[in-house]
Amino acid sequence: xxxxxxxxxxxxxVVPVFATAYLxxxxxxxxxLFLAAAITDVLDGFxxxxxKKETKLGIxxxxxxxxxxLLSAFGLLAYRGMVPFxxxxxxxxxxVVVIGGWLLRNIITHRSTAIPSFLGxxxxxxxxxxxxxxxxxxxxxxxxAASFWILVVTMALTALAGVSYLYRGFRExx
Length: 174
Fold this sequence. Notes:
Blueprint: H1 3-23, H2 27-50, H3 56-79, H4 85-109, H5 118-136, H6 141-173
Helix pairs in contact: 1-2, 1-3, 2-3, 2-5, 3-4, 3-5, 4-6, 5-6
């Protein structure tokens, strides 16, 4: 197994450990696991492109790992009342659009690859920043003060990304 795919598998395995640590109040462990997962997300893609070891498995698993981590994090933060429920709804709605569109496109065109848009990547980066801000906000005062605005900008990017994927999908399918 290639190193990028190994990092992606590890990121998937970290999700339930992160969730458990967060729910049991092991805050520093949860923060560390979330940040490590976010770093491996950047690393696995970078290593795969640099070493020319991009695989079909990695192309499918990498976005799945992102979705599992971020949906779990937003779900937990909403459950604890740290982020408003509407933020979880926006993130979840965008993912339903992306996954549903990918499935529909795959059924109709038999093409399984999906190329993320700049807005999609920006939304994911914003989601990581927002989760990190809410996990650490009361530990780092300036981050705590900015966390609501980080969330607002991120949710706007996420909604725009969802709409852009819808537009792109409809245009592609004619």
